[in-house]
Design brief:
Blueprint (H helix, E strand, L loop, with lengths): L1 H42 L7 H24 L1 H20 L4 H18 L2 H9 L2 H32 L4 H4 L1 H15 L14 H23 L5 H24 L13 H30 L5 H6 L2 H21 L3 H18 L8 H18 L2 H8 L6 H35 L8 H26 L26
Helix pairs in contact: 1-6, 1-8, 2-3, 2-4, 2-9, 2-17, 3-4, 3-5, 3-8, 5-17, 6-13, 6-16, 9-10, 9-17, 11-16, 11-17, 11-18, 13-15, 14-15, 14-18, 16-17, 17-18
Length: 487
């Protein structure tokens, strides 16, 4: 009995360490966004305002993609510990930055650690517990994102005003130490999955070139930065060339960072596209509800941010419940369909927002969106992991996180373009003041686009196979997608 209690205690400490690891990254993003005006005032370089975010996201996506193979080569524990050390070290360097160039460089270093941190814990869960039990722990991971979204902006403002902007980075040090103190002594060594460490250098180079060129071109386009059209076109063309090179490299690589044959697995493909869509539509709520409240209904930034609390609280609770349902029933397809169906309804309701919409109505719409996001949060990673052999767990998990992050970046850009086009088209560039009615129209268009994306996800999920989820730790064989269905 004492042995069982020790194992249970150890497992709880491991889960706590993984959640805190995710929390440090989630908090950093929301806190930094709040402090950026003060950072710009201190370091100068207003023209580079978006670059710390752009470079950070680029590094996150790249390292998330590589994290699967790295953990297969060297073991999940070593890679996670290394990523936490890199992230904390990068945070300290950010706090000591003397100019924007240094901050941008050190944010890239942070991003390299962050991409691994948000990915590897999900693989660790897959290594520790059987498929049917993974959902409940994936749901718990949603706590980190929810807390950071609600607490982060307020905490960032408080730290910046009382201690200085440098401390929004220094605060990561004690949190990182707590995470390491739980992971180093308690997390077991899982060993390596791939014994022959063949690095796909060509794939890494072409992928990095494609993503960097794409995000730089996207940033220039979104910010209307004054650069030559020829340079902008060259960035887009270079991104396409590098993407083509990446596809060719992955077809020939012995250990590709993204095995293209994974897309023959329909569960992996549908799950990957679904998390891409979810990354895009989730931002629609968290970005444009506060925008609507501030610019149309006249609320303060702090008050509009507080309005996200019902959405995040609902999302956390629903994510935990979703994980429990997956573990009890061993099925995920129905939850996926329900999630996108509710999301479609919620986005359609948000598209009806006007100046006369009551606070209670907005809260109800937020709760609906929170339920949708929470239901989906744990299930697609679990579904993808359940459809592949143990050898592919790292690649599948990292691919899921990569496409979610990419969906967020592209989704934010697309929705921002929808807003800009709506306002420019109606204003015909002749007025400086933007009327409330025009803003309502712009927000309406954003949420209608989000509703359409939900409909696409809903249709896809009808084709998602509900593969039996075992309650035992076992090695899946190739072709496990054709295992008996559990419906």
């Amino acid at each position: 009995m004492d042995t069982e209690n020790n194992v249970l205690k150890r497992f709880k400490l491991i889960i706590s360490g993984l959640i805190i690891s995710l929390l440090i990254v989630s908090l950093d993003s929301t806190i930094t966004t709040t402090a950026m005006p003060q950072i710009i005032a201190s370091l100068g370089g207003l023209q580079y305002y978006v670059w710390p975010v752009t470079i950070y996201l680029t590094a996150v996506i790249i390292s998330a993609m590589l994290s699967g193979k790295l953990s297969d080569f060297y073991g999940s524990k070593k890679i996670l510990i290394g990523a936490l050390l890199v992230f904390v070290f990068g945070s300290v360097l950010c706090g000591f930055s003397q100019n924007m160039a240094e901050l941008i460089l050190f944010r890239a270093l942070q991003g390299l650690g962050a991409g691994i941190i948000v990915t590897v814990p999900k693989k660790i869960i897959a290594e520790m517990v059987p498929p049917r039990q993974r959902g409940k722990y994936m749901g718990l991971f949603g706590i980190a994102g929810g807390i950071s979204t609600v607490v982060g902006p307020t905490l960032g403002g408080f730290i910046t005003d009382s201690l200085g902007w440098q401390w929004i980075f220094f605060v990561n040090v004690p949190i990182g130490i707590v995470a390491l103190s739980l992971i180093i002594p308690y997390l077991p060594e899982f060993g390596t999955i791939v014994k022959e460490k063949v690095i796909d250098y060509l794939g890494i180079i072409t992928f990095t070139g494609a993503l960097t060129s794409f995000l730089v071109a996207l940033t220039f386009s979104q910010q209307n930065t004054v650069i030559s059209q020829a340079l902008l076109d060259s960035l887009w063309i270079f991104a396409v060339i590098m993407l083509s090179g990446f596809i060719c490299a992955e077809r020939k690589a012995k250990e590709p960072v993204m095995p293209l044959n994974m897309f023959r697995n329909s569960v992996f493909t549908i799950s990957t596209v679904s998390v891409f869509l979810l990354g895009a539509v989730t931002l629609a709520g968290t970005v444009y509800i506060p925008l609507f409240l501030q610019l149309v209904q006249g609320l303060s930034p702090s008050a509009s941010g507080a309005y996200l609390t019902p959405l995040m609280f609902t999302m956390i609770i629903t994510a935990i419940l979703s994980g429990q349902i997956i573990s009890k029933t061993g099925t995920y397809k129905k939850l996926a369909i329900i999630s996108f169906a509710i999301g479609t309804a919620g986005m359609f309701l948000l598209s009806t927002l006007t100046q006369n919409t009551s606070n209670l109505e907005i809260i109800i719409y937020e709760i609906i969106i929170g339920i949708s996001a929470g239901l989906a949060m744990p299930l697609f990673t679990v579904a993808a992991q359940n459809s592949v052999a143990k050898r592919d767990l790292g690649v599948v998990t990292s691919s899921s996180m990569y496409f979610e992050q990419l969906g967020s970046v592209i989704g934010l850009a697309v929705l921002g373009t929808v807003v800009n086009m709506t306002l420019n088209l109606n204003l015909q560039n002749t007025a400086v003041h933007v009327s409330s009615s025009l803003l309502v129209t712009a927000v309406h268009n954003v949420f209608m686009i989000a509703a359409v994306l939900n409909i696409i996800g809903l249709v896809l999920c009808f084709f998602l196979k509900d593969i039996y989820m075992s309650d035992e730790m076992e090695e899946k064989e190739a072709g496990c997608e054709d295992a008996p269905e559990y419906i």
